Amino acid sequence: MALVLAAGISVPAVADDASIIVQSTTSTANSGLYDYMLPIFEKKTGIKVNVVAVGTGQAIKNAQNCDGDVLLVHAKSAEEKFVADGFGLKRSDVMYNDFIIVGPPSDPAKIKGDKSAGDALKKIAGAKANFASRGDNSGTHKAEIKLWKAAGVDIKDSSGQWYRETGSGMGATLNTAVGMGAYALTDRGTWISFKNKGDFEILVEGDKSLFNQYGIMLVNPEKCPNVKAKAGQSFIDWVLSADGQNTIRSFQLDGKQLFFPNAEAEPMQKAG
């Protein structure tokens, strides 16, 4: 079983070369993906994988601080900068799903069924309808800010009013949204695994701008001499292999596939 460590918990140095640290996202960890796939990898290789589950922004910072061997997150531009700045080696696509906008059935901004995420966000801002944001520099938060910007909506002046930043992970933010009847942007995998939906529903989906790509890379051992490059690369190679990709593909909750492997294929524009 994978050991998933929450944010704020220090990770001791690991002396055993058969053990690696993967800096990753709350969405992949909370979905149960690692609990499903890592025992398969560990049985095949004998390499123990410890996952630190935080927002993408924090995961990248942790990796830059040499607190990890592998980075698996979902903010492609930030990942590419991580590699360009010399902190990581080659970045590879792993899998994708998509983002969705969820909300209460009352739908005060009348966005249900909108084909454009940008149009939906403009309506939410125009109605000053409550919107719960992670506000934590995670991959989901980065995607959300990009969507607001593309929609021509400046949410800075609305912070603390109809626009509420939780500073928390996706599950906690969804709990806040449900509690206050607010809209929220979430990845589909987390939504499927989320147990406190109440009467909330998916209101907007399918826009190509909601595509959510995950990437993987080895932390550069030249920057971080403590990196277990051989074991870390073994994990990356397996994740990108047919076996690893099939393992990701076979992971389901309630009969629904949460992540769609695309290590070699051209990405599709909609996961759902």
Provide a compact summary of the structure.
The protein is of the alpha/beta class.
Helix/strand layout:
Layout: E1 3-5, E2 19-25, H1 26-30, H2 33-45, E3 48-54, H3 56-64, E4 70-73, H4 76-84, E5 92-103, H5 117-127, E6 131-133, H6 139-150, E7 163-165, H7 170-180, E8 183-187, H8 188-193, E9 201-204, E10 211-218, H9 229-240, H10 242-250, E11 252-253, E12 256-257, E13 260-261
Parallel strand pairs: 1-3, 2-3, 2-4, 6-7, 6-8
Antiparallel strand pairs: 4-10, 5-8, 5-9, 5-10, 5-13, 11-12
Question: Can you offer a commentary on this structure?
Answer:
This protein is of the alpha/beta class. The protein is 36% helix and 23% strand. The chain is built from ten helices and 13 strands. The protein has helices at residues 26-30, 33-45, 56-64, 76-84, 117-127, 139-150, 170-180, 188-193, 229-240, 242-250, and strands at 3-5, 19-25, 48-54, 70-73, 92-103, 131-133, 163-165, 183-187, 201-204, 211-218, 252-253, 256-257, 260-261. Strands 1, 2, 3, 4, 5, 6, 7, 8, 9, 10 and 13 form an eleven-stranded mixed beta sheet that branches. A two-stranded antiparallel sheet has the order 11-12. Helix 9 (229-240) packs across helix 10 (242-250). The model is unreliable at 1-16 and 266-272 (pLDDT under 50).
How would you spell out the order of helices and strands? EEHHEHEHEHEHEHEHEEHHEEE
* Residues in helix, %: 25-40%
Largest sheet: 11 strands, mixed
Tell me the fraction of residues in β-strands, as a range.
Answer: 15-25%
